[in-house]
Design a protein that fits this description.
alpha+beta; six-stranded antiparallel beta sheet; 6 helices; globular
Length: 339
């Protein structure tokens, strides 16, 4: 009887392990020919979890259960496709459409700055003016197209190919596909101090760990994590902001977590449906020398879906400023960091 119980335990254990290690399978095809697309990149946006399609256009990728992560399917010459929270055991059939060859728009206004001048500002705003940013480089800078519009004083960047960022400080190589990049200036000048309103950039990122056993890189990653947006949002999910050394202020007054947001009754096990109790907050993290960040809620009535990875939807309704906004690609960590 003891042996039977032991065997039953083994079966149940293996069953639970196989359930925990679920995978998503799919097939990627050309929209016109219906032929399989080989070598397409398939990854969760902002993560180090990814793969490529085989000779038959098929792929398998671990499922990031309990996550708001978006599955990205990308191949040069095709329009990138994104799937929000892909689920199920059925084979995904993904059809990619050819990307029409893009031609640079005809610009009426003259561009007063040289490529060298614009590239210098782009690097600082894209990679960041921090240790992580300064120790990162863009491998394929020649693919970047830059234009300064004197009509509204904006610097715009485009690239038909993903930018390859080599971050030797944190030990990552990042493939970043730019969807939008724009710097808004106050005047017709590339000066950054007291001249930039804000910088907007959107895109999908795939991380490759090139220093998993490097102690220094691991220490730097931990330092980059502490006090970051990811750290803040994960602490909101866990409900332990103050234990994680965050201090929240509203109208110059320190407030407890219960006055920052409330958790809705319809929250699921892996997700917290939360609503912020106000429009503007100031965030400090004690271990970061009391660096100051701000959080503005665009629409206070919005209910956000927050996952344990720190992912939040709809993320565009959250606008961070200060220290957290200054962290760019050079300080970015994959969403699966530490989990």
């Amino acid at each position: 009887m003891v042996k039977l119980n032991f065997l039953l335990f083994i079966v149940l254990l293996l069953g639970s392990l196989s359930g925990a290690a679920q995978e998503i399978s799919g097939l990627v095809l050309d929209s016109k020919t219906k032929e399989p697309i080989t070598g397409a990149s398939v990854y969760y946006d902002g993560s180090a979890v990814g793969t490529i399609t085989d000779l038959e256009g098929k792929f398998q990728i671990p499922a990031l259960s309990g996550s708001n992560a978006v599955l990205v399917i990308r191949h040069l010459g095709y329009k990138t496709k994104k799937l929000v929270q892909p689920q199920g055991t059925a084979l995904l059939r993904i059809v990619l459409t050819e990307e029409a060859e893009s031609l640079d728009e005809i610009i009426v206004t003259a561009d007063p700055f040289s490529r060298k001048q614009k590239l210098k500002v782009f690097r600082l705003e894209f990679l960041g003016d921090t240790r992580g940013g300064k120790n990162s480089s863009i491998v394929n800078e020649e693919d970047i197209r830059l234009f300064f519009n004197t009509y509204n004083n904006t610097l715009t960047a485009h690239s038909d190919r993903p930018l390859i960022v080599q971050n030797d400080y944190l030990g990552y190589r990042i493939s970043f596909e730019i969807e939008q990049f724009k710097i808004y200036f106050k005047s017709t000048s590339l000066k950054r101090i007291d001249n930039i309103f804000h910088t907007v950039y959107e895109g999908s990122a795939q991380f490759f760990d090139i220093a998993s056993r490097n102690y220094r890189a691991q220490k730097r990653r931990k330092n980059a994590y502490e006090g970051s947006r990811m750290h803040f949002m994960r602490s909101c999910w866990k409900g332990n902001l103050h234990r994680q050394n965050f201090e929240i202020r509203k109208k110059f007054k320190n407030i407890p977590t219960s006055e920052l947001y409330e958790v809705k009754n319809d929250s699921l096990e892996d997700f917290r449906n939360i609503q912020f109790l106000g429009e503007q907050f100031v965030i400090y993290h004690k271990k970061k020398g009391y660096h100051r960040s701000t959080l503005n809620i665009q629409k206070p009535e919005t209910v956000f879906s927050l996952d344990r990875y720190g992912g939040c939807a709809p993320f565009k309704e959250l606008v961070f400023g200060g220290y957290m906004a200054d962290s760019r690609i050079g300080d970015m960590l994959p969403i699966d960091y530490g989990l």
